[in-house]
Amino acid sequence: MTKKIILSFATLALALSAETHNITLFQPTVLNGKELKPGDYKLELKDSKAVISHGKESVEAAIRVENADAKFGATSVRYTNGDGKFNLKEIRLRGTKTKVVFGEATNVGGSN
Fold it and tell me: Is the pLDDT of residue 112 over 60?
């Protein structure tokens, strides 16, 4: 019985250690050299990494999390345009003060 309780708390702690958000990409997007097709994705933030996934497809990238002065009214995706491709630069998360900047790793610590 004690093992089940400990296992339950450990599972809960792992689930709570990562932030998960839903995002929509409206155009082909490049992250870490991989092109993601337009569609709905899950964004998981953990430590200094982000994982963007859709079904079996996923891409992991180093991130830096910044906090804005006010909460964002909508989720927005920002790009850099290089060689005719849209490279993912940052995501601002609706309802939070969290801005996820790709390519620069620091700890995830965005507060809502």
Answer: no
